[in-house]
Amino acid sequence: MSYTLECPYCEADLGEPDDCYEPTDHEHECHECSKSFIFGVEYERTYYPRKADCLNGGAHRYKPMIGAPVEHFAGRVRCEDCGEESRLEAKADTASGRAQRTNNNEGDDADPAR
Ligand SMILES: [Zn+2]
Ligand SMILES: [Zn+2]
User: Fold this and answer.
1) Mind listing the pLDDT tens digit for each residue in 34-49?
2) 17 alpha carbon – ligand 2 mean position (Å)
3) What b/e sequence results for 24-33 when a residue is b if at least 16 CB atoms lie within 10 Å of its CB, and e otherwise?
4) pTM of the predicted model, to two decimals?
5) How many C-beta atoms lie closer than 10 Å to residue 62's C-beta?
6) What is the CA(81)–ligand 2 centre distance, in A?
7) Complete edge-to-edge strand list for the sheet that includes strand 62-64
8) Model confidence over 47-75: pLDDT tens digits?
């Protein structure tokens, strides 16, 4: 493994070739010996595991999205954990769960005692 590309024919150091961001085979022509060869690229993988309770039956942790234009992102939220995007419905003042109740017939189930 080397950090720069080396010609398999003349062993010239060809530096870091452009346009090889895909981990597939690439064709390259050596500027020293003018021979073409194939090289593969390997990238080091790094993992960043984190908990995502919403994928395990928990609630999404929605955070407001910020960006430009502001109007475009107004009322849009995105789950910090799984990245799911959602839209804030007209003022749900309680956290998730009960938001669905405020449909149209307000007061219907508000106080059955009266
Ligand atoms: Zn060469
Ligand atoms: Zn989520």
Assistant:
1) 999 999 887 778 899 9
2) 39
3) eebebebeee
4) 0.41
5) 19
6) 5
7) 62-64, 76-79, 85-87
8) 999 999 999 999 999 999 988 898 888 88
